[in-house]
Specification:
The chain is an alpha/beta fold. Helix content is 50%, strand content 18%. It has a nine-stranded mixed beta sheet with strand order 7-5-6-4-1-2-3-8-9, sandwiched between helices. Helix 9 runs antiparallel to helix 10.
Length: 321
């Protein structure tokens, strides 16, 4: 059980990229929820290299509200890197990542805190309804979780995003992970700890447009698969062995047929089919190996996950990071 005699400091971590239209309704809504619960909180808005007025607007809101801290990254590093920056700089006893589009209802934070006081180290939002998403997005999300959980030893709870509450000790473990290719859903699942899901129905975006195209979602899923499973490499080892065995068996059949019946005119079509099939298998296997080698190269360079340009408090720069 948690210490119920004091209010925990809540760090609300909000990665943003070109979200100038969504800031005002988000801040108004979540502030109302937190103040109604008499919570002690801080906002950490991580500007991920926005090219619109997101950063200037955040600085203006920061001047008006001392709870708001703004972390400006030097360029766009991606949502998971921005989320990592927020986790690294958060001061709270509990940390809550949340998107600015209000598709994750801030009202759930009260329930999250209740479960945290009961002893849960991580409380995540479970999307029981995704009517606001397109059919294609719902189907692709369903298949992603099924394929990921089949291939990976780390199991992701289905239909769970980054919206969650986790304890300070969980944050300290995440900070120790040095990997550069960040797949935060997998990292949250990998660290373990006592967890529980809170179901909710996901509404439509309040303002603005999503920044996730199908291509970005595909690459995001690929990063997660490669980052948390070596089974694709093992599959191609087995597949290569099976193809080699079949090729050897077929070769022995051709030799035996030639010795018994004599030489016949080889068929061009069957020869090209075999060559193209084996060539395709080889290229696919090389491509999968290349995905792992490319990530090994990135990890070996030991570059930082993100670069902070400025940190702002009350609208003023308080440091370079």
């Amino acid at each position: 059980m948690r210490d119920l005699d004091r209010q925990p400091l809540i760090s609300i971590i909000v990665p943003v990229f070109n979200e100038e239209q969504s800031l005002a309704p988000f801040i108004e809504t979540i502030t109302r929820v937190l103040e109604r619960d008499h919570a002690d909180f801080e906002f950490l808005f991580v500007d991920d290299g926005s090219t619109d007025n997101t950063l200037p607007n955040l600085l203006e809101y920061s001047r008006q509200d001392a709870h708001i801290k703004v972390i400006g990254l030097s360029r766009n590093f991606g949502k998971d890197a921005a989320l990592s920056a927020g986790i690294d700089l958060a001061l709270g006893d509990v940390l809550i990542p949340i998107d600015v589009d209000l598709q994750d209802p801030p009202e759930l934070i009260v329930q999250f805190l209740d479960y945290w006081r009961q002893g849960y180290d991580m409380v995540y939002g479970l999307r029981s309804g995704r009517d606001a998403d397109s059919i294609g997005k719902r189907l692709s999300a369903r298949w992603f979780y099924k394929v990921f959980n089949h291939f990976s030893a780390v199991k992701l709870p289905e239909n769970v995003g980054d919206f969650r509450l986790f304890d300070r000790k969980v944050a300290e473990v995440i900070r120790q992970l040095p990997e550069r290719n960040r797949f935060m859903k997998g990292i949250f699942a990998w660290v373990g700890f006592k967890s529980i899901g809170v179901p909710y129905s996901r509404p439509e975006r309040a303002r603005g447009n999503t920044k996730w195209s199908l291509w970005k979602l595909w690459n995001f899923a690929l990063d997660g698969m490669v980052g948390f499973s070596t089974l694709p490499l093992r599959v191609w080892t087995y597949l290569g062995s099976i193809v080699s065995l079949l090729a050897f068996t077929y070769g022995m059949f051709i030799i035996g047929k030639t010795l018994v019946l004599g030489r016949d005119m080889p068929g061009y079509a069957s020869l090209m089919t075999a060559i193209l099939f084996l060539g395709g298998i080889q290229l696919m296997s090389i491509g999968i190996i290349g995905e792992y080698v490319g990530r090994l190269m990135i990890e070996s360079k030991q570059r930082p996950i993100y670069v902070i340009d400025r940190v702002y408090q009350s609208g003023q720069a308080v440091g370079p990071g």
